[in-house]
Amino acid sequence: MKLAQRVGRIQPSATLATAARAKALVAQGIDVIDFGLGEPDFDTPDPIKDAAIDAIRAGFTKYTAPSGTDELKQAIIRRLEADQGLRYQPNEIVVSCGAKHTLYNLAQALFEQGDEVIIPAPYWVSYPDQVVLNDATPVIVPTQAEDGYTLDPRRLESAITPRTKALILNSPSNPTGAGYARAQLERIAEVALRHRLLVISDEIYGQIVYDGFRHVSIASLSPEMKALTVVVDGVSKTYAMTGWRIGWAAGPAALMTAVANIQSQSTSNPASISQKAAVAALNGPRASIDRMVAEFAARRNEMVRRLSAMPGVSCFQPQGAFYAFPDVSSCYGRHHNATAVTGSQSLTTYLIEEARIAVVAGAAFGDDRCIRLSYATSLDHIRRGLDRMDAALAKLKK
Ligand code: PMP
Ligand code: GLU
């Protein structure tokens, strides 16, 4: 069978592949501690589940409008106004089957051959592949831990060409946990406005922030910037609802109409029941979010402290999300018995085999010096898993 050429240009998602590998080992009875997947380990709060059960019982089990129910769009609009002071109309919102689907729909609506899309690295695994799947070219702009893993506006400006179609910004970031402060966003916005650069702003970790960091949407900086921004968000992380598959975009009406048309010809609406659950999540009290964030904060502290104490390992202090992205490159060029560690990929293999911990190679996020550990797992797992990692790294010899 001859597959379309675009398939040959992408890799399966490294995060999902790592998760599958860890689950397969656990199914064989092997005690693997999984730091691979970015998925809250908390259960979806009961009032949200109840809303879904009520929806089923009430027969809310049919197609909805392809771009989402009015009720959910109104709930999204209220949140954007309350959290960021942003005002949208219902025709500026499209609800999709998760933020990943939202991002893919945007890529379909916007990108074509010859287009360049600027992506700061380290980046979330799916951004470059979604660009490539839509025949455009990712332009990767590196950022450094010393600069807080935020995009230098001068480097952004020098990456812009007449072919540049958009910038994909992710604050707080997966995988680094870096968050952009308002002043940094203002400098990015200044460049974007000067070049009429569309910003796809993935804000899915906007509520999962620490030490008083406040997430600011670049769209909220000015009406001009709002007109150049598509805000992407969803319920997966904030409400521990990864399996429900609800994400959305808020942006200019013409673009949102194009996204809605694509969706009407591809997936139709996201699940009606999940939409009812998402309404309950967005309209519900903050208490469950605050509880989860407090727990994530304790785990972050423990994970970063333990990683930083390992010889040769340095770890950036995340301001949001639930990932640590330590630089482990001092281990490269070392070996244990017949196993040589040459980069993040081989270290990841070594760690699963020797330490029985699953982590994701930094190479998948555009930075081979690092590995990613999700701390969306219990403190007990973090302590035991990092003991194992420490012991395995100590066995590596020059
Ligand atoms: N953006 C980022 C940065 C993510 O880490 C994820 C992880 N799932 C997503 C988007 C997509 O989330 P979902 O499709 O579950 O809404
Ligand atoms: N975003 C999560 C992660 O980075 C879930 C996996 C995925 O959607 O790729 O682990």
Provide a concise account of the structure shown.
The protein has helices at 5-8, 14-27, 46-57, 70-84, 99-110, 126-133, 153-159, 182-195, 223-227, 253-266, 272-283, 287-308, 344-355, 379-395, and strands spanning 33-34, 93-96, 116-121, 137-142, 164-170, 198-202, 229-234, 247-250, 323-324, 334-336, 339-341, 357-358, 360-361, 371-374.
Features:
Aspartate Aminotransferase, domain 1, 398 residues, 14 helices, binds glutamic acid, alpha/beta, 42% helix, three-stranded antiparallel sheet, Aspartate Aminotransferase, domain 2, single chain, seven-stranded mixed sheet, binds 4'-deoxy-4'-aminopyridoxal-5'-phosphate
Intertermini distance? 47 Å
* Rounded mean pLDDT score: 96
The number of distinct β-strands equals: 14
CATH architecture classification of the largest domain: 3-Layer(aba) Sandwich
Q: Can you identify the CATH superfamily of the largest domain?
A: Type I PLP-dependent aspartate aminotransferase-like (Major domain)
CATH topology of the largest domain: Aspartate Aminotransferase, domain 2
Indicate the low-confidence ranges by residue numbers.
none
- The radius of gyration computed from the alpha-carbon positions, rounded to a whole number of angstroms, is 21 Å
How many structural domains can be distinguished in the coordinates?
Answer: 2
Largest sheet: 7 strands, mixed
**Helix/strand structural class:** alpha/beta
Shape: globular
